[in-house]
Amino acid sequence: MYSRSGRYFQEREVRVNQLAQKLGISGDTVRYYTRIGYVHPVKNKSNGYKEYGEKEEHRLRFIQSARQLGFTVEDIGQIIGEAEKGKAPCPTVRRLIDQRLHETEQHFSETIALRKRMQAAVNDWHRKPDKAPTGDMICHLIENFSYTK
Amino acid sequence: MYSRSGRYFQEREVRVNQLAQKLGISGDTVRYYTRIGYVHPVKNKSNGYKEYGEKEEHRLRFIQSARQLGFTVEDIGQIIGEAEKGKAPCPTVRRLIDQRLHETEQHFSETIALRKRMQAAVNDWHRKPDKAPTGDMICHLIENFSYTK
DNA sequence: CCTAATCCTGTGCCCGGCTCACAGGTCAAG
DNA sequence: CTTGACCTGTGAGCCGGGCACAGGATTAGG
Fold it and tell me: Using CB atoms, which residue from A58, A93, A143 is nearest to B62?
């Protein structure tokens, strides 16, 4: 419980896995954000371990919140970058979430369509028998299934 | 229009981009399936180009159909492998699509939840102003948004 | 004090399913 | 023969981390 300068204080610098556990994410994820320069832990000279303080914890919480809202890791870098230059990142945030939401809608309808095809296939195949492959047919289930709706 | 043996015949061996265009996919995609050994074009000795015949075309159509149904590339390898050993791949196909469908459902509900969060954020932010970052706040929109519904 | 065993870390490579960059070869026109 | 447009194979890159591994740090035991 001594700092490098010898003064008594509550321990604030934690190591990667301790912080990860506190945030409910994996150590690898924390390392990843460290690697790409989104957090800047201090390297402990004596053992080479990285030590994370409150600032890093807060930063990681921010990253988590943003990820939950569908921002990409790159988006978050942009947002952080603007904030660090003292600029309000809000306009960018608004613009980006519009984009990401649009993409999510897109992705959503593709997922629905895929699910529909898959369900149709499962239904269709339920009353069809297995068949050994022939020279020009790998799997008749797949090859004879055509989705037309 | 001469074969290597000098006989006259309709050209059947095509090159990567010709085949890709015919199938409506990218040349890179065809190259990818070639690289991982799902199709085996013949290497033209004189120019090093790979030449694709009907067999490869059929194989690629099969791969496309399977991908459309949500099978992973690895699934497809397994299916092809079984078929090539003369075994009916149908049981595997049925098992795999059940798995993939389940995953798609999972993914689907995650996508819905994400969309809901995003929409809620957009709504919430609509009547909130921009704010410059402070020492302990990167973006108040993101940090003050809590999804509780 | 030393040793052995266990824990923990940083680093670098790996994943899917392609896509892209690039160096160099090919082919038709002149 | 040369120019230049086109085409090819190969290797690397993408996201968002996950995983394996070697080796240092720390602890238990003596």
Answer: A143
User: Does A149 have pLDDT greater than 60?
Assistant: no
Residue A4's pLDDT band (cuts 50, 70, 90): very low
Residue A138: its chain B contacts at CB < 8 A? Answer: 59, 62, 79-80, 83, 89
Measured distance CA(B20)–CA(B54) in Å, rounded: 13
User: Three-class SS of residue A15?
Assistant: strand
Question: What is the predicted pLDDT for the residue at B49?
Answer: 87
Pick from A93, A88, A38: which is nearest to A69 by CA?
A93
- Domains, chain B, in order of start with CATH, read 1-68 (1.10.1660.10)
A68 touches strand D (CB under 7 A): no
pLDDT tier for residue B149 given thresholds of 50, 70 and 90: low
Give how far A5 is from chain B: nearest CA, Å: 26
